[in-house]
């Protein structure tokens, strides 16, 4: 992959992540489908990517008053616990099963957002 294309993909998915569109998921799909990265390698890259994009999005959302403090109080601890448990589980699950499960989740979210979203 050329460096210019890598920067362009990273920039585009970073902008989409900032808007809450799921740029990290798009990056994961790009790495696995077009760059041939393994599921664990792509997941690790995606985590590093998230750590670099999240602070900017958090600052912007806080500035615009989009953060509900009460939700943060319960979601952060729950997110930490489930992240650790999920990482331990993922280390024991076959990569093909993880890839298929991720695809099913993306399809479900896509269908739900397309057809079942309240206006």
UniProtKB/TrEMBL annotation:
Signal peptide annotation: none
Cellular compartment(s): Cell membrane; Membrane
Record InterPro entries: TM_pro_TauE-like, TSUP/Inactive_protease-like
The record describes its membrane topology as:
Multi-pass membrane protein
Transmembrane region(s): 42-59
Q: Source organism's superkingdom?
A: Bacteria
Q: Which UniProt keywords apply?
A: Cell membrane, Membrane, Transmembrane, Transmembrane helix
The protein's matches in Pfam families, at most eight in alphabetical order, are given as: TauE
UniProt GO cellular component terms: plasma membrane
Q: Which family does it belong to?
A: Belongs to the 4-toluene sulfonate uptake permease (TSUP) (TC 2.A.102) family.
Q: What is the name listed in the Swiss-Prot or TrEMBL entry for this protein?
A: Probable membrane transporter protein
